[in-house]
MFS transporter (Streptomyces venezuelae), 430 residues
Amino acid sequence: MSVATMRQAVRESVSGLPRAFWWLWASTLVNRLGAFVATFMTLYLTQDRGYSASFAGLVVALHGLGGVISSLVAGVMTDRLGRRPTMLAAQASTAFSVALLGFMEHPAAIAAVALLVGMTSNASRPAVQAMMADIVRPEDRVRAFALNYWAINLGFGVSAVAAGFVAEYNYLAGFLGEAALTLVCAILVFIKLPESRPERDLSAGAVAEPEVRLGTVLRDGRYMGVVGLSFLVSLIFTQGSVGLPVAMGEAGFTPGDYGLVVMVNGLLIVVLQIPVTRFIEHRDPQKLLVASALLAGYGFAMTAFAGSIAVYALTVCIWTLAEIVNSPTQMGLVVRLSPVHGRGRYQGVYTMSWSVASLVAPLMAGFVIDRHGADWLWAATGVLGTVAAVGYWVLMRGLPRETPAAKAAPAPAAPVAPAVGPTSAPAGGA
C-alpha cells in the first residue's frame, strides 16, 4: 500500500465527524493516559504497602463493585440531569477520590476509598456513550465508537509504560498524576463540550413520548438479551487479564513472558482498529457479532494447546481481532436499540454487564483452574463463545435494517450554548 493510499484511508476514517466528537475523543484519550490505579492497584498494595494477595483481591473486587453500582446511577443521571453535568461530576469526583486513595493508610480506609474510586471512575461511561450517540450520525456511529475504542487502548498502552516508570519512583506520584489528568479531562468537557441531550417535543398536538425508566430497560426483552450476551463476551475477554497470566505462570512462564504476549493485544488494536473498522462499517452486524463471538471463544480455547510464547501470541491475535470487530459493532447495536430519551439508562445497564463480568471472571478463572486445571477454563471459553454466537443469531433475526429515514434522525450538528446546569429533565423516578 502506497503512502498516498494510506493517507486517503486515514482521511476517510476520520472525516465527517463533528467537532464535538473530537473533543469527546480527546477527553477519552487524556483520561486513559492517566489510568494508574486500575493498572497498578495490586502491585501497590502487595509490594509497596506489604498487604496480602487476598486483601489486594478484596480491594480490586470492591473497585469493581463500585463500577456495578455507579453504572445504573450514572445512567439515570445522564438522562435526568444531562450528559455534560454527569461527566463533570464523575470526573471531578474521580480526581478527588484517586488523590485521596494515595494518602490512605488504614486497610479499612483503603478499601472504602477504592470502592469510591470504582464508583466515580465508571460513572462517566454512560454519559460519554450517550453523548457520542447524540452527536454522531447513525451511519457514522460504528466508526465513531471504533475511534473512541482506539483512543482508549492507545491511552492505556502509553499509560501502562509511563506508569511503570512512575511506580518505580513513587506510587503516590502515580495517584496524583492520574488525578491531575482526570481534572484536565473535566476541564476539556467544561470548556469544549455543550450539552447534547435531545429535548422532548412538548408542543401542542405532539405525540406523547413514553417515559423511560430503569424498569423500561429491564422489561425490554431483546435489549436485555443483548446485555446478557455482552456479559458472556465480557467473561471471555476478561480472561486475557485474569486467567491467562495464572495459566502461563502455572506453565512455567515468567511475568515478563506474559507481558510480551499481552502486549500483542494493545499493539494490534492500535494498528488494526481503524482499517478493520473501515472494512466492517457497513456490513451486516448480525454476522459480525456472530463471527466475533466465535473468534473470541475459540481464540481463547486454543490457549489450551499453547506451549510457547509464539503460540500464546497467536491466540492473542485471534481474540484481539474478535475484540476489534465486536466492540464498535456491539456499541452500534446498543444505541440502535435504545430510545433517544432513554439512552443514559440503556447505556448504564449495558455498562453494568462489563462491570459484573469484571467481578465474576476472576472468581470463575480461580475456581476452574484450582478445581479442574487451566485447560477446562479454555474449553469453557469455547462454550461461552458458541452460546453467545447462537444468541446473537437468534436475537437479531427480524431486526430491521436502519432505513434512510432513521439515518436522517436529528442529531445536533452544531453546538448549542454550553451550560453547566441541567436542561429540562423529564419528570418521574428512575
